[in-house]
Design brief:
Helices cover about 75% and strands about 0% of the residues. The protein contains two helices and no strands. Helix 1 runs antiparallel to helix 2. The protein is elongated and about 35 Å long.
């Protein structure tokens, strides 16, 4: 798992990159019809977004 208190996660560009990668992969999977791969990737992206950006 990700240690959300890690100082390497402090820069904004790192947090955006960590959130964007699974969401982009999820969108790509959904657009090609791979629903069973897109759904977990979307959940991971949402979870990481929640932990990194929302209080």
């Amino acid at each position: 798992m990700i240690d959300f208190q890690n100082p390497l996660l402090r820069p904004l560009w790192v947090r955006i990159l960590i959130v964007a990668v699974p969401l982009i992969l999820s969108a790509t999977a959904f657009s090609t019809g791979w629903v069973f791969l897109g759904a977990p990737l979307g959940l991971v992206g949402g979870f990481v977004f929640r932990r990194l950006f929302l209080p």
